[in-house]
Amino acid sequence: MFPEQLVSTVRVENECSRKMMLACGFQENQEPVAEFILLIDDKTSTASSVEASEFVISKQDYIKKTQNTIL
Question: Which three-class secondary structure state does DSSP give residue 53?
Fold first, then answer.
């Protein structure tokens, strides 16, 4: 039922979320894994791109981290 690893994505410029993922035990993939195009204003069709980084934690590391936190 529990996956072998958990994967999360965080916007590259979101420094607080990146720090939180690291504090939770996730490891950051150093290469951006996705780039999204966001429409800023539908009337002018202005678009901006956003990069996301991938963070991964294995099942074993997650269990160790949560056990240490609870105790």
Answer: strand
Nearest to 11 by CA among 36, 39, 45, 30: 36
Sign of CA dihedral 43, 46, 47, 48: negative
Q: Which residue type sits at 2?
A: F
| Beta strand 34-41 pairing with 5-11 | unpaired
Distance CA 3, CA 28 (A): 18
User: pLDDT, tens digit, for every residue of 24-59?
Assistant: 899 998 776 767 666 666 666 666 777 888 999 999
- Show the tokens assigned to 51: 């990069």
| Verdict on whether the full-model pTM lies above 0.90 | no
